[in-house]
Amino acid sequence: MKKLIKQEKYYKWMILGVTSLGTFMATLDAGIVNVALPAIGAQLQVTLSLVQWVVSAYLLGISSFLPLFGKVSDLHGKRQIYLTGMGVFVAGSFLCCMAETIWSLVLARILQSIGAAMLMANALAIVSTAFPGTERGRAMGINSTFVALGSLAGPSLGGILIGHFVWQSIFYINIPIGLVTLLFGYMILPWEKSQGQKPFDYAGAVLFALAMTTLLLVISHGQEWGWRSPLTVGSLLVAIAAFWLFFRCEVRKEYPMIELSLFKNESLLSGTISAMLAYMALFANNILLPFYLDQVLQATPVQIGLVIIRRYPCALH
């Protein structure tokens, strides 16, 4: 069966379809939860500072594990890590549906983010390998379009599901789609030789995760704890120290988790900074806006989703 699929004229486009669907699901779940935050907070009876971790834990997990699984895939194969990521993402989605407390939901979201990081770290790499140089740019552009589609579809789809069903429905929808993607991925994605002989940068992975986690804690809870409180200052110092040690470690490693020398390329550096600032501006109000629309303007979940989606008019361009 696999040999017949590989002989198909459109085999490389099948690979693009499988990887794009995984990317779409990962980005969809970054935005679909925002509309559900008021409903989740009300049912689990938690404050805004706690319910925001349903979103923050997912984004933190992706940002912490994305470089890690990019390196792991180089050692053990992109196909294996991608398919494992889809299985972990589906398992995390199921646990989100079963969560009865805010912290069990946050832990399930962390598991879900690990799967999403595996998917996002390998999707473009698999596509770039499958397509020749003349078609690679077009294929990667199509895959990136699914990132924008996931961001666009998340709020509106979340509003529809919350408006007609319970909040767990935003996670239930991932399970059948994920299982189908896992099946097609198993049949379609190509095998590749692993590079297991290269050492893994465990120190860099731990330091990067520690730095990102403590920095997000400061940003998320600094006002609640007090910006001059020992907990806030201490967490900030840990974040700064972890980032400094991470950079020192990566520069000295023969096989670093992140190749920092790449940022000597001015185009890559400026593009990365521009993307970071754009996403900061775009997502700054993603947590507060649904609560304002729900509690102040008394908007329905569908209306909340439609308002949020209007903030992305240029996402597909």
TrEMBL record:
GO cellular component: plasma membrane
InterPro entries in alphabetical order: MFS, MFS_dom, MFS_trans_sf
Location of the Major facilitator superfamily (MFS) profile domain: 15-317
GO molecular function term, any single one: transmembrane transporter activity
Residues annotated as transmembrane: 21-44, 50-69, 81-104, 110-133, 145-165, 171-189, 201-219, 225-247, 268-293
Localization per Swiss-Prot or TrEMBL: Cell membrane
Membrane-protein topology: Multi-pass membrane protein
PROSITE patterns for the chain: MFS
Broad class of where this protein is predominantly found: membrane
Gene3D superfamilies xref list: MFS general substrate transporter like domains (1.20.1250.20)
Key words, A-Z: Cell membrane, Membrane, Transmembrane, Transmembrane helix, Transport
This protein's name: Drug resistance transporter, EmrB/QacA subfamily
Source organism: Propionispora vibrioides
